[in-house]
Amino acid sequence: MVRITSALLTLASVAAFASAQQCSGNGSMCPNNQDGVSNTYLQCNSWSHTYQNAYCPTGQVCYANPNSPGTTMCGLPGTGGSGKCTGNTAKCVSAGQSGAYQQCENWSGQYVNANCPAGLNCYNNASNTGVYCQ
Ligand SMILES: *[C@@H]1O[C@H](CO)[C@@H](O)[C@H](O)[C@H]1NC(C)=O
Ligand SMILES: *[C@@H]1O[C@H](CO)[C@@H](O)[C@H](O)[C@H]1NC(C)=O
Ligand SMILES: *[C@@H]1O[C@H](CO)[C@@H](O)[C@H](O)[C@H]1NC(C)=O
Description:
Layout: H1 2-16, E1 28-29, E2 40-45, E3 50-55, E4 61-64, E5 72-75, E6 90-92, E7 100-105, E8 110-115, E9 122-124, E10 131-133
Antiparallel strand pairs: 1-2, 2-3, 4-5, 6-7, 7-8, 9-10
């Protein structure tokens, strides 16, 4: 009992002081290691070896990156992160409502933000694996 409590306290303080924590490389983490909550994430500055606040694109929140442990990714709230993707797949952020979509990036296996040409909305195609702009 005592041990569990102190372990929880330790975790809480680690999270609270994460921004002053030493880090290496270009790792990143969500604040308090919580998925799907924060519009900000902590990005390691590989020069100073400390975490710095960074911002997800508007409307997106931080998730641990399932494809690359020790790093984060931004995704839409409630999606659990965009997760892995393969090939040339894409999906609309809000079909018919905006031109925003997520395009699978071939080499990294992650979705990246993309937009239809100005004035066009995004629609998912018939097999739901690609999009078209109209
Ligand atoms: C740093 O970022 C690059 C490109 O985003 C990635 O390939 C590499 O694995 C990352 N390194 C670490 C330690 O996360
Ligand atoms: C993208 O995917 C195709 C088919 O999977 C592959 O042939 C091609 O080499 C990939 N391109 C890059 C840049 O990874
Ligand atoms: C939907 O888009 C994907 C990616 O461009 C493509 O591979 C697939 O054939 C398309 N499906 C249909 C039914 O057009």
